[in-house]
Amino acid sequence: MAGSAVVTPVAPRLQRDRFLVPDVARGVAILAMLIAHAGPLMFDQPAATAFLQGQLNDVASPLFATTMGAAAAIVLAKAGTASAQRTVILQNVIRGAVLVLLGLLLSTWGSWIAIVLSFLGIVLAIGTPLVLLGTRALVAVLAAVLVLGAPLNELMLAATGPLITLGERTPASFLLEWLFLSPHYRVTNLLPWFLFGALLFRIRFGGRRAGWILMAIAVPAWWLGPLWRGATGAEFSPSGSYLDTLHDAGLVLGVLGVIMLLASLRGRRTAAVVRAVFLPFEAIGSISLSLYVFQVAVVGWMAGNGISYGSTDPVAWLVLVIGVPIVGILWWRFVGKGPIEWLIGVLSGRYRLRRSSTVGAGSAR
C-alpha cells in the first residue's frame, strides 16, 4: 500500500566531499547579514562597533554571491556530461526565478531589510551558464563586468532612473532596478563575485598559498578607499562605484583568505579547534536561505509590534544576532535540510518527490 512521500535528490548530494571554504564562507555571510540587519536596533552604540557593523554589512552580499558561484561550479563539475550540465543550468534558472518571486514576497512583510534575494536570483540565472566558459574567457567576462559595471550603472540611472521613482511600478522598472538602479544592490556588482566564486573552485579554493595571496590583495584594496577620501576630501564612495567595489574586494578577499589559512592548518589538536570554530558557520550556511527568510519574518514581526528602526533595544538585537542563528543550528542538527532549500529543490527538479510503498506487513527492500 502507499506510504509517505520522500524526497530523492536528482543530483549527487555532497557529504564527506563537501568543500569546506564555501560552506564556512556562506555561514559568515549569513551571520554578517544578521548583524547588519540588527543594527537599527542598536542606534546608540560606540563608534567602534558601528564601524564593525558597517564592514559586516558591506561584506555580506558579495560574499554570499561568491559562495553561490562556487556552488554552481561544484554542481556543474559533478554533473559531468553536457546533458547533465544543461539540466543543472535549467534548474538554476528555475531556482533564480523562485528567488526573484521570494524576494518580492519578502518585501511585503514590513521589515526594514533591503531584500537581496531577487538580485541574487537573477545573478544565479545569468551566471550559471557562464561558469561553463574556459578559465581565460571567464576571467575576461569577470573583468569586463567589473570595468563596465560602474559607468553602466550611472548611464542607466541618468537615462531610466525616473522609471523606478515616478508613477506606477512595472516589470520593466523592477528589472532595471535589479540590474542597474537599486541604491543597495545591483546585478552588475554582484555578478563578478559569482564568477569569482566559480574561479575559486577551479583552484579547489587554494589552500595556504592562495590564502596568503588573497590577504596580500585584501589589505591594500581595503585601505585604498580611506586613503583616496583622505586625499580628495570625499565623504564616501557611492555604492557600485569602483572604490566601493574595491572596498568590497578587500573585505571578501580578507574573509576568504582567513578561512583558507585556517583550513590549511595541520596538527590533530589545531585541526580539531578549527573544526569546532567552523562548525556553527557550516551549520547556518547550509540552511542560509531558510535562515534569511526566518530573520525577515522576525524583523517584520518586530516592526509590527513597536520595535522600531532606529531604536536601542539590546534584547531585540540579541534575538536577531544570537537567537536566530541558534534556531538555525538546532534545525540543522535535528532536522537537516532547511525548508526553503527543500522547497526550491523540489520546484527546480533537483529533488524529486516519489511515493514509497510497502509489501504486506513488511517494508519494501
Automatic annotation (TrEMBL):
Is Membrane among the key words of this record?
yes
Q: Where are the transmembrane segments?
A: 20-39, 59-77, 89-106, 112-133, 140-164, 184-203, 210-229, 249-265, 277-303, 315-334
Q: Does the keyword Coiled coil apply?
A: no
In terms of superkingdom, the source organism counts as: Bacteria
Task: Print the keywords alphabetically.
Answer: Membrane, Transmembrane, Transmembrane helix
Task: Report the protein name in the record.
Answer: DUF418 domain-containing protein
Organism whose genome encodes this protein: Cryobacterium zongtaii
